[in-house]
Write a structure and sequence with these properties.
Blueprint lengths: L21 H9 L9 H27 L8 H15 L20 H6 L8 H23 L1 H4 L6 H12 L3 H9 L3 H13 L10 H9 L5 H8 L3 H21 L1 H9 L19 H7 L6 H27 L3 H15 L11 H9 L5 H15 L2 H9 L3 H11 L1 H23 L1
Helix pairs in contact: 2-5, 2-7, 2-8, 5-7, 5-9, 9-10, 9-16, 10-12, 11-12, 12-13, 14-15, 15-16, 15-21, 16-17, 16-21, 17-18, 17-21, 18-21, 19-20
């Protein structure tokens, strides 16, 4: 691909640099007006795409926002909100639990509680609906960025195609659960995706958005390792510096909560819930379900597994970086994050949206399409829960159930293999 820059043409009169008078001044002013090329016909296809996404999401909204009982309504969003309330009211952030029947603790860095104070500006019901709208908007953005090679083939109907793809993605289990629980994963994935994939230098330095994401939740810190391996030192320093600045600011506002998190809450995975539960689809969760008990033996086996998977994953991300595949880089790092984290609930696999886009590419190759359909099916159906049910039957069905119970973990490993096979191999054969 040529690296020559396109001429900066702002309009039909852009070459008339010597024009003067009121008309010329008006033309020069209009050349800087945002969306000057937007016309009614150009908005029709995106509007239809948005309508398609909203129509597809309507059953989920009806189920999880209208029909759900109050006591289990947006339970994770309630955690974020109560963490922020604890910060404002001086309650112990990491000791306070949500109301009956959930009794959930706040498990995120204190910066997440600080930014979560915006959730206190309206009644919880209003905030829950607004958070759902935000998640759908972020899904739209992620779809447009991650699936760009495919969508660009659709020409003027790109907006409709974007809505069609998003309408399918909203029914993947991680995205569904994000709407059900009021989760933050859509925010984290979007921040990292925009930061890595953007084509132009914006007003914010590259790396800052991944830094903010890491300050909210630690798992995007895998991007720092990649930046170091890729020798993108400036980006790494900006990202780590942004997270550090956010942490320092939070310490100045809430010193006790900051100290408790970094010295106690962070090193207690039990705060996150039963680690051996089906919903924990990390490598450590699989090892626990294999029957390994907490202790040095589990820690050693888990550490070896993490080193092997992370080593291969970061190597792949570096190859993809050099091959000019930023979407695949994000997808790879997202898969590493969910695999090596001590606890990765099924809704953390929102990163799978990006991984599927990286595997699909522009959708011209049959192999990529088949792999994407298979991967999408693995996230479409609640396979881990089916497997957990089959395990209780024993016999051959119980053995098959154990394999199926780890489906999200298998998805992550297969997604890494798929991105390695298609993205890297395709580049080498060009």
């Amino acid at each position: 691909m040529s690296s020559a820059r396109r001429p900066d043409i702002t309009g039909p009169d852009a070459t008339d640099s010597g024009a003067t008078g009121p008309d010329a001044s008006a033309r020069r002013w209009l050349s800087f007006v945002p969306f000057r090329s937007v016309t009614v016909p150009s908005l029709i296809w995106p509007a239809l795409g948005v309508a398609l996404l909203l129509g597809s999401a309507a059953p989920l909204i009806n189920k999880y926002l209208i029909g759900f009982p109050d006591e289990i309504w947006q339970v994770d969003l309630e955690v974020y909100r109560e963490g922020a309330r604890s910060l404002v009211e001086g309650r112990p952030v990491y000791d306070w639990l949500t109301d009956n029947p959930q009794y959930l603790p706040f498990t995120y860095p204190p910066f997440a509680a600080l930014v979560g104070t915006v959730l206190l500006i309206a009644p919880f019901g209003v905030v829950g609906w607004a958070w759902t709208v935000l998640q759908l908007a972020l899904l739209w953005i992620c779809t447009g960025i991650a699936f760009r090679p495919l969508l660009d083939r659709c020409g003027v109907r790109r907006g409709l195609a974007q809505g069609g793809v998003a309408a399918l993605l909203v029914h993947l289990q991680p995205v569904q659960e994000g709407i059900r629980f009021g989760q933050v994963n859509a925010v984290l994935v979007t921040l990292c995706l925009v930061d890595v994939v953007r084509r132009r230098v914006g007003w914010w330095p590259r790396g800052s958005l991944t830094g903010i994401a890491t300050a909210i939740k630690l798992t995007p810190g895998v991007f720092w390792i990649h930046y170091a391996l890729a020798r993108q030192w400036r980006v790494a320093l900006i990202s780590a510096g942004t997270a550090a600045a956010a942490t320092v600011i939070t310490f100045l506002v809430a010193p006790s909560a900051t100290i408790v998190f970094w010295t106690d809450a962070l090193i207690d995975p039990g705060r996150l819930g039963p680690n051996a539960h089906t919903q924990n689809q990390s490598l450590r969760g699989v090892l626990l379900r294999l029957g390994l008990e907490e202790g040095p033996r589990l820690s050693l086996i888990w550490l070896v597994t993490v080193v092997v998977v992370a080593g291969l994953g970061f190597r792949l991300a570096l190859l993809l970086e050099r091959a000019g595949e930023p979407v695949a880089v994000v997808g790879t790092l997202g898969m590493i994050a969910v695999l090596v984290s001590p606890v990765s609930w099924t809704h953390h696999y929102y990163w799978g949206v990006v991984a599927l886009a990286a595997v699909l590419g522009d959708g011209r190759r049959t192999g990529r399409i088949v792999a994407t359909v298979v991967g999408g099916a693995m996230l479409w159906f609640p396979l881990p829960w089916w497997g957990a049910d089959w395990r209780s039957d024993g016999g051959w069905l119980g053995a098959a159930g154990f394999v199926v119970e780890q489906s999200d973990c298998w998805f992550a490993l297969l997604a890494l293999a798929g991105m390695a096979w298609f993205s890297v191999r395709d580049r080498r054969t060009i």
